[in-house]
Amino acid sequence: MSKLSNVWVFSDIATRLPETIAGGRALGEKVSAFIIGSEADIATAYSYGATHVYYLGNKADAQMVEDYAATMSQAINDGDKPTLVLLPATKRCKALAAKLSVQLEAGLINDATEVSLDEGVTAKHMVYGGLAIGTERITSPVALVTLASGAFEPQAADTSLTGEGVSLAFVAPKQAIRCIERRVKQGNSVDLGKAKRVIAVGSGIGNLDNLALAGELATAIQAELGCSRPIAETEKWMERERYVGVSGVMLKPDIYLALGISGQIQHMVGALGSQTILAVNKDKNAPIFQYVDYGLVGDINKVLPALIQAMKG
User: Fold this and answer.
1) 59, 67, 186, 249: which one has the fewest Cβ atoms less than 10 Å from its Cβ?
2) 116 is in an annotated binding site
3) 8 neighbors 76 (Cβ within 8 angstroms)
4) Are residues 80 and 221 in the same domain?
5) Range(s) of the domain holding residue 267
6) In which band, very low, low, confident or very high, does the pLDDT at 1 lie, cut at 50, 70 and 90?
7) pTM above 0.85?
């Protein structure tokens, strides 16, 4: 099978739509995008390569993304088979994919790092806490896959592109989840998966003063700041969205600098897609030095100020 006649795509987060459409273009002759939003959102989908847009209207504040499952299922069922539905592996899209899987009697693979067509839809994803890569195949007429960040490289937007549009009537779910209230999440929103340079800090950073210095270094080299799991979930010094690892963010930056990170595999699987990996750690036997392109054995308290001075100098 070279390509499917059509691949369906959807993203609840605007920044993840381009790479999801790129996956559709790689695997399908046509790319049909479900869009919830404005006319500008429709134009954006076309500009990244969607050939068809199925418009679901503007999203109401109290509407859950999963409530659109019945509407999407109906459109997918009316389309050509076999087919594939691609979504980013966000919390809301995983919940939506689970509902679609039941309604369409479709196989589902989550957090795929690679997707190909081989006697069905074949996807690779991490298993055993990142210690191995599992390969699974879906042979049902409809296949569902949620994509890890960086699984496909988006093309540059072309505003001259257009396509066919269809407005879909909303099909209300039989049992909807009612949204009572929405509150702005504390902390700055960040999408590490899009960053070209990332500085990540681990327990070896020592204290909040050094964390502030790491942020200063990140600003100096125009990098985003990430962290290991203990910094986000134990110390709670940084937002959960900045945690790099098997159950966190999967990265593919040009440069990844790890400061005070030991390098356990559960963390490193989130960073191994980096083009260049650098690390600073005071323990010369730290596992991270098995993965780096450049490593420095040294005290963070001395190395970090020197790096800042060098970058600013």
Assistant:
1) 186
2) no
3) yes
4) no
5) 192-312
6) low
7) no
